[in-house]
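Sample 1 of the test manifest.
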Amino acid sequence: MKRGTFTTTIAALLLAAGPAWAQGKLNVITTTEDLASIAREVGGDRITVESIAKGYQDPHYVEAKPSFILKLQRADVLVLVGRELEIGWLPPLIQQSRNARIQAGADGYLDASLEAQILEIPTGQITRAMGDVHPLGNPHYWMDPENGKRIGKQIANRLSRFRPNDRAFFELRLADFTSRLDVAEKRWLAMVAPYKGTKAVTYHRSFPNFADRFGLDIVGYVEPRPGIPPTPQHTLDLINEMKRANVKLVLVEPYFDLKTPNAIGRATGAEVLVLPPSVGGVKVATDYFKLFDYNIDLLVDAIKKSASK
Amino acid sequence: MRAQVIGASLVAVVVLGLVATPASAQEAQAIRQDIDQLKRDFDTLKQQYDARLAALEARLAAIQAEGGQPSGQQPTPTAEVPPGAAGAGGPTGSLPVYGGAALGSKVFNPDIAVIGNFLGASGRNTVNPNPALRMQESEASFQAIVDPFARADFFVAFGEEGVELEEGFVTFPTVPGGLLMKVGKLRADFGKVNGLHNHLLPWTDRPLVTNNLVAGDEGVSDAGISVARLIPNPWIFLEATGQVFRGDSSSLFQSNERGDLGYVGHVRGYQDITEGSNIDLGVSYARGHNDAGIVSGVDVGRFRTTLYGADATFRWRPLRRSIYRSFVVRSELVWSQRDQFTGLERAMGWYVSGNYQFARRWFTGARIDRSGQAADRSMVDEGQSVMLTFWPSEFSQIRGQYRRTNYAAGSTANEFLFQFQFSIGAHGAHPF
């Protein structure tokens, strides 16, 4: 019934917003596939969406290829993760795009982190002795569905600014996305509820928001410091710490080498899971919902398995 | 709050309506539907308000975290860093806020970074001997957005001979006509290596062809104006660059009159082959007055040098393992036509270089060099190098290079060169 009403309303809006078609579709480029998936939810068929980075590559180390300059040259809106995640490659691409619409500060430049809840913002002096720290906080904030809703809202607002006639369309789609995400989030939370406080180790600091939302307790990292590959001493310390704290989970992003995590797994009896932090990180995670579906399923199965050992 | 009042009043009106007129079953059904619709609307409204409130709270937390904390007050929970395992590193607990109060005066400072480049050499070289140890260059960079229309980049090189503005230019990224315009002192867009600063080279030195034909370390680098435009076509990335310089670049170009300008042109084509491999091709042209005709400070010869270049690069980097494996093979060819008292001298040189990344922080490479000399094409130097590079982190680099050079002058040099490079300050863009 609800679905029916929604479709009818959309159809009515399509008729009412006829002239908007004359403007053509808004061309949205996002830096990651997560943002692309959310933009697709909100923008529907009124926009075209393409992501620069693939979900299975490390978003810190994307190459500034000239083919991306061509994508940005044609973009109406650029949505980026922000918090310096893309600092190594996005600025030169924007600069060479010859596109005034997406330069920093322009209307078409949308830093999706501005209204999101950001964790791990350092409160004092930071130095590179801490590794490649993000001085503006952890940029992996999209891994919390609550932030997904906030990202969606910002995108809807920005798209409406470019297409005022389509505002109602974008807002309806946003409301639909938000309510579906609410339902899904309740389901995910119910699935992980029995395992709240499960301890885990991750390779990089990619999962603080995910852990916060779904009750994981991250007690260590395979990387001794952000951006620094594992060292033997740190790996030993980590193994001892995991044994002491009885940690049975190692979560690894798909773009990291599994050699050290597997060695840690063997030494501690922990399950090593390749947990994609992004849409497209594994084949089945084709959109924002399926990303969490996949990750929560994987996590719950692994926890059950380690409990039955 | 307002939403609740409106919601309640609407419900009240509907209820009153129900009491006042006894309705048929059909009407009751319709009214029920209306109530359901109202409830849904009310829920949506509530959700929107909740989301807005949450966003505001998040923003407030961020502002508090950035603005510094008054003493004695706990940092906001969002700003806290989880402690992690022993030895996990990263900031823990609350840290002192340095310069927090004066933050406002610094926000518009440019991004500043300094890169040190230390070189060592051992072995015998009688033709082009480098010192055993030297701090070749410390490059300070200052980069910021000027205004909504421009950005500026300064690179100041502190070498052993003094301080030099390596590059300093303003970029207008959105000039009408799809042009990217730069004005200032620039490294010319001639080939690939000429545009690279020393610390971005995949070797400790520059190839022989650069030293013999394209003005060495300094390269074609001059005060000038550059415009670059993308050439629209349905197939590949194609960019044409035109540059006008004063006409002074080391000993290569020398301007004696105001009209002795230097010109550089470059066309670059790029195409992705797969998501992990691509090909990058370029042709270049440079022309300016040379120093061959200068007799006791007067340019009596009015001779010119013209350079033609061709470059090709193939890159491979599998996206799923992009931080562990990559391969780049590159070649550049340069033809020089130098007018001099003895006539037009045509010299040619090239290099082929390959670099393979075999672990997250380890790279190996090799280079073959061959080049005539601009003033005498029969003097052909040849060289071969192998190197090994280690990156302790993204911000430092250690490299060793074995180089064998057969100089046309007759001697052969076998050298071991090494390099320490270290960078502090703002995180720069990764080279591509």
